[in-house]
Amino acid sequence: MKADITVDTKGMACPMPIVKAKKALDGLQTGQTMEVLSTDKGSLNDFQAWVKQTNNELVQTEVENGVYKFLVKKS
Question: Which domains does the chain have, with CATH numbers?
Fold first, then answer.
């Protein structure tokens, strides 16, 4: 699935990946997707918790060369 937008938060520490993702997600319509790129190891747990709290969907999680890729669908 191709994301409608990509948010690059590589090099940013908690809570910035979530802050940037929230701001970007606010600009999306229901059903659109956002890819978030992060190098923060804590972001794996952070994004899983965040999508539950916000009732959005974590469609895919991937780790490649130390970069976490999260695909979030706005609900």
Answer: 5-73 (3.30.110.40)
